[in-house]
């Protein structure tokens, strides 16, 4: 009975490996036809265990990346960090608890300040001259638009 199970498992592994080799060959043919790149792989030369272990590793990587994306997406909506009170000396003198602030508040203000700085820089820029000054007044001047000006 154990020999039958081992033979059946070996037969299924060979069948799966042959399907994966065919898939790899057709994918390699597609890449060669579509992009003109020869990958230089010969799937028929690789042993069964290499094909199966590579497929298992790829599947495990795909599942782990999917799991990380789903869990990361669920965690992104939650608040990170604990609320911070607004000054301990003020809360003790007024008798009430401090006003809770979000921990990431300071980080959201920085991009807005950066945008304001960028706007100021664009307004403060001095426009460059439309044409260059000639070294000799008898020469003609060409503007950026390609118009020739003569004095």
From TrEMBL:
GO terms for biological process: negative regulation of apoptotic process; positive regulation of angiogenesis; positive regulation of canonical NF-kappaB signal transduction; regulation of transcription by RNA polymerase II. It is found in: Nucleus. Its main location: nucleus. Keywords: Membrane, Nucleus, Transmembrane, Transmembrane helix. Residues 133-143 have a biased composition (Polar residues). InterPro entries: LYRIC (IPR031402), TransReg_TumorExp (IPR052305). Residues 76-151 are annotated as: Disordered. This is Metadherin a. The lineage of its organism: Eukaryota, Metazoa, Chordata, Craniata, Vertebrata.
């Amino acid at each position: 009975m154990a020999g039958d199970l081992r033979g059946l498992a070996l037969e299924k592994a060979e069948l799966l490996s042959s399907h994966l080799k065919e898939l790899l060959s057709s994918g390699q043919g597609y890449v060669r036809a579509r992009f003109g790149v020869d990958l230089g792989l010969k799937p028929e030369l690789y042993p069964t265990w290499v094909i199966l272990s590579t497929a298992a590793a790829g599947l495990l990587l795909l599942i782990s990346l999917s799991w990380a994306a789903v869990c990361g997406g669920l965690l992104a909506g939650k608040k990170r960090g604990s609320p911070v009170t607004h000054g301990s000396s003020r809360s003790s003198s007024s008798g009430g608890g401090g006003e809770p602030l979000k921990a990431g508040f300071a980080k959201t203000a920085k991009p807005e300040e950066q945008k304001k700085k960028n706007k100021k820089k664009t307004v403060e820029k001095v426009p460059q001259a439309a044409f260059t000054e000639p070294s000799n007044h008898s020469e003609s001047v060409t503007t950026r638009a390609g118009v020739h000006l003569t004095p």
